[in-house]
Amino acid sequence: MRLPFKTLDDVELDEKRVLIRVDMNCSLDPDTKKIINDSRIRAMTPTLHELEQCKVVLMAHQGRPGSDDFISLEQHTEILRKLGFNAHFVDDIFGDKAKRAIKEVKVGEILVLQNVRMFDGEMKKGPIEEVAKEPIVQELYPYFDLFVNDAFGAAHRSQPSIVGFTAVLPSVAGRVMEKEVRTLTEILSTDQHPWILVLGGSKVPDKVKMIKKLLEIGRADNVLLGGLIGTLFLIADKKIPESYGGVIKEFEEILPVARELIAKYSDVIMLPVDAAVERGGSRVECSFKEMQGAPFYDIGAETAELFGSIIRGAKVAFANGPMGFFEKDEFQYGTIKVLEAIADCNCTTVVGGGHVSAMAERMNLVNKITHISTGGGATMSFLTGKKLPLIEALEAAARRMDGDA
Ligand code: 3PG
Predict the structure, then answer these.
(1) Ligand 1 pocket, 154 CB below 6 A?
(2) pLDDT tens sequence across 20-46
(3) CB of 55 within 8 A of CB of 15?
(4) CA–centroid distance, residue 355 to ligand 1 (Å)
(5) How much is the pTM?
(6) What domains sit in the chain, N to C, each tagged with a CATH number?
(7) Is 64 in the pocket of ligand 1 (CB under 6 A)?
(8) pLDDT digits over 349-403, tens only?
(9) Is 255 a pocket residue for ligand 1 (Cβ < 6 Å)?
């Protein structure tokens, strides 16, 4: 398959000053804030190894401003060191301190800049030329010969560090980006059915938008919902009261969309039929009526059985986001059951998003799954058929590099 952008194979790397944007956004323990799943960091090591003859400066985000997982990239740098890279961290993004450190980077070294989302302008989204005007781009780009973007997980974000640099530097994709685009394109090109999407976890507004698009284009035969997104649809379907919606940010705004989707696609959207809640510190399975105000923490055994049988009959199955409150061990049951069904089903399977991928690894299922994607929202966006902003940006950069634009 011919890729629409340039890769590391298309550029001279020796002694080049390379700025690389990666997605090493990791799941954290909610109490200790320690990284509990470093799979995204491990996934990018092939790219970093190929850049060993370069002077590398690495940019990434962790969490979002205001979220519990919005932390510095020091721990990530430590993990890179443990993986054998000569990595150092600077607590700055494009100020004097960062610039001094960038000038000192030697061949074989990696300088990790601070979490790019600590700069307000990074959260802006817009056309490439617009976000390229942001100071993070304008202040940093003169220090580099090449921009490598390996942040597939954030490829659906048209933010300055993702697409802005492609307007001002020769830009290519890293190996993670390349592998994801190749594999997902290949999987999408096979027109097999039933095509099942199993969706859970948080980032509910983003996921509602994607479900809507996927349903509109008729991609999925069934969408099985659990986790926080499942809670929203249970409320929309009046299975549980509206008061349960408080845990979902932007609940008021997205509830009407969920209602509309339930009404229009009732034969496609499959909701949990029972729940697991926490009582006296333990998991208790119950019907919706028996929840008594306790939040929906997982799908119950009946739902796990139902979802499992649908998945086992699939030809293509995508899973993204946990079925329950994954951070608590006793509420991992639903996610484990979904993954077991995915591993059992004799079909093309893709698992994406940090939590579920980490669980698949822990369950030793990696070899039984067609593709473990580093993307969560990015993979979902890709499935909708819409060209991701990062791919568009790399394509435009390739045209410029060839002198066609
Ligand atoms: C992800 O975890 O899906 C990516 O890192 C993108 O993060 P975002 O949804 O906060 O932009």
Answers:
(1) yes
(2) 999 999 989 889 999 998 999 999 999
(3) yes
(4) 13
(5) 0.94
(6) 8-178+387-401 (3.40.50.1260), 193-346 (3.40.50.1260)
(7) yes
(8) 999 988 899 899 999 999 999 999 999 999 999 999 989 999 999 999 999 999 9
(9) no
